[in-house]
Amino acid sequence: MRRIHLDAVGGVAGDMFVAALLDAFPDLAPQVMAEARAVLPEGVGAPFLSQGLSGGISVRRFGLEGAHRHGHVHPPADAHHPHPVGAVPHDAKPAHEHEHSHAHAAGTYCDMRARIAAAPLGAGTARHACAILALIAEAEAAIHRVPVEEVHFHEIADWDSLLDVVAAGSLAAALEGAEWTVSPLPLGGGLVKTQHGLLPVPAPATTSLLAGFDWRDDGVAGERVTPTGAAILKHLARSGRPAGGRLVASGTGAGTRSLPGMPNVLRALVFEAAPAEAEALSSDVVTVIECEIDDMTGEEIGTATALLRGEAGVLDVSLGHRFGKKGRPVVALRLLVRPENAEVVAQACLAQTSTLGLRLREERRLTLTRAAGESAGVAVKRAARPGGATVKAESDALTGATLAARRAQKQRAERGDD
Questions:
Q1: Rounded Cα gap, residues 348 and 122, in angstroms
Q2: Closest alpha carbon to 196 in 236, 267, 143
Q3: Residue 271 half-sphere exposure, CB side, CA atoms within 13 Å?
Q4: Rounded Cα gap, residues 218 and 229, in angstroms
Q5: What is the reported pTM?
Q6: Are 227 and 155 in contact (CB under 8 A)?
Q7: Which H or E element spans position 35?
Q8: Which of 27, 158, 213, 358 is the most exposed place for a label (fewest CB within 10 A)?
């Protein structure tokens, strides 16, 4: 099992994330650069991956050739990139403060999703990229009180931001199953110039996305975590320290801004779990479908859940009780579904229940390696756990054995054998 810890020394931005991971996994560079190129139209530039320095240490930088982006792109004067991957060498340009602008607009959120869907991307890339994009759009829509479909803002509307999202999606797909963690994030401070005027740092979209993550104040102002970086973290990582293991690789991605007394970098540390842990655990991604129901009878809900459990790709169906508006009791329905079956199961939910809408999201999960067996004539389930194993009798087997024992006892009593 692979564990990737992101050490946010200087901050987190989309380009810093991509550069750090490609530094740690150089073999993924051809695939990521090709998929990044595939989503861009002609004439807007080409992705580059270059080598350089930040605070005196060797780093990678990722960006869009010839683009003016928001504070984390063009290699500064100390950048050294004799052999950039995926682009011809270009002159280093000065760093700029992070400005949220609509220059070089590429379209709305829906335009970007359509472009990703139409591009020839590898398995899983579009799914991860669209999930990251949706997080940004939903945060911005809530902040500015507009429908998600109408969101048109710098993190989506600039080609370099789309580049970051797709490259991050490509990396997430290639590293599917990894466990991601991130260190406390630098708070920064001051104001950032946006299309809506000056906004406080961290930007509203960033704070919305990273509620629940740990932060630190290192006394250095400016925007340290961008909305794209925040969405990538929200999609992949949890705040905290890695569970440990054997360190097998590391990578460092840099922004262009010079920070006082420290390198402006994001570092990726790659660990592999101990063999016993790796054997016990497996990881995958599931789609969670949720809704609340307040106008179905118990019999109707029972029938609906039984039918939904029979749908292909449904891993689990559970019900909970909550109180909705005006104190009315509601039933909370939750399904765990394999991502490839999510659309069909969602349609089944709308057909079998009275809900008017559903919430869908993807979550990573860790599961123990399990195997069915038999012990003393009873069906059991064995689970391999780190440091040992457990054996538990199947509930249906116990119920069946109990009923059989009671029937035998009743028959003996009727015969007078007892």
A1: 29
A2: 143
A3: 18
A4: 19
A5: 0.62
A6: yes
A7: helix 29-38
A8: 27
